[in-house]
Amino acid sequence: MNHNAPLTPRPLDHLARTQQRILTLRQLKEHGVTASTLAERCRPGGPWQQLLPQVFLLHAGPPTGEERLRAALLYAAREPGGTGDGEAMVTGLAALALHRFSSVPPLLGIGRIDVLVPRQRRLRNAGDVSIRRAHSLPRPQQVTGLSCAPVPRALADAVAELDDAETVRRLLTEAVRGGHCEAAAVVRELSRARLLSRPHVVDAVDALLAEGRAIAEGRLYEMVNCYGLPDPVWHVDLRLPGGPSLGGVDAYWPEHAVAVEIDARAPRQDDDALWSQYAQKRQHLEGLGISVVHLTPKKLRDALDQQATVVRTALMASSDRTPAAYVVVTPS
Fold it and tell me: Strand 258-262 to strand 291-295: parallel, antiparallel, or no bridges (unpaired)?
């Protein structure tokens, strides 16, 4: 028996048929594939092909969308042969495609794959992979076994490369309407990426916030109806008799002096001023004996029963409070 004969890649053929068909150079060497065997198999018309530096596809023909993403993550892994988990994640349009956005082309129709890595990594763009660096990475999500940026971050990275107002508006709206995330989370990432100074992004954000508020209002109606709360008056303006407006609220129970307001604020450039105005309004109402319950769109989406309990508790506690000042209620 010739102990110096190179190892046959037959076991790797079995691996390619049953498991992973994207492997790195290190993984191939661990399976006994020599440089000469690799060169032979990756020849023009051969059964394998090199997709990216040190990343190989173990079949002929074009890669699938998932194989392209897996190859990109392997290329961007910290160590050759690593998985890229925690050190690299798909972002931008490719990530939105993974999250099944209908307004994004399928993976095979996306020409460039954006991959997010730590800023200190020394990587270059290669093939269809574009490297994006970040001071701190968000916590990745696993989508079909692939490390993927959360929707708000993926959206910000996609929007940074888009200048078509309609496309940006469609993406942001689908994020909220499709239940992927809340409007505030999207605006927060757009602000961090310094994209809110772009006019077409600002217009899309205004539409996004309106969409997010409409959805939150619908959930508030659902909460009142489904959890047996007494009917409030909806969307009213409160004022002292003969005095100026105290501000509008989304729901108000005059008999209990309880108001509900949806806190749909989003971090924007003037957020400090908005928050100050918001806090003064709440303080003024509570100084008049009106209990103000603030509900966020996220809480209304994720824990509607808990929010109903919060409102019910406020209504029940009204009998124990000092009677509130009389206020005039008018449609807002």
Answer: parallel
- Taking only the tens place, the pLDDT of each residue in 263-282 is 866 555 455 665 666 677 88
Structure tokens at 174: 């689908």
| C-alpha–C-alpha distance, residues 41 and 46, integer Å | 5
The pair of three-digit structure tokens given for residue 106, joined into one six-digit string? 């399928």
Angle between helical axes of 183-192 and 199-226 (0-180°, round to 10): 160
Nearest Cα residue to 156 out of 95, 73, 112: 95
| pLDDT greater than 50 at residue 287 | yes
**Which residue bears the tokens 């109903």?**
308
CA–CA separation, 260 and 90 (whole Å): 40
Q: Are strands 89-91 and 113-118 parallel, antiparallel or unpaired?
A: antiparallel
213-226 pLDDT, tens per residue?
888 999 999 999 99
**Tokens representing residue 131 in the block:** 């490297």
Query: Can you tell me the distance from the alpha carbon of 286 to that of 258, in angstroms, rounded to the nearest whole number?
Result: 10
Give the percent of the chain with pLDDT over 70.
87
Residues 32 and 157: their CA atoms lie apart, in Å, by 40
Q: Which residue has the tokens 């988990």?
A: 85
pLDDT value of residue 179: 86
What's the CA gap between 303 and 24, in Å, rounded?
Answer: 44
Using alpha carbons, select from 82, 27, 25 the residue that is nearest to residue 55.
25
Q: What angle (nearest 5°) sits at the alpha carbon of residue 46, between those of residues 41 and 50? A: 65
For residue 272, what are the β-bridge partners?
Answer: none
Listed in order, strand segments (DSSP E) in the chain are 22-24, 49-52, 55-57, 89-91, 113-118, 129-134, 141-143, 146-148, 233-239, 245-253, 258-262, 291-295, 328-331
Q: Which two tokens stand for residue 54?
A: 């040190």
Residue of 217, 206, 194 whose CA lies nearest to 300 = 217
Tell me the C-alpha distance between 108 and 98, whole Å: 11
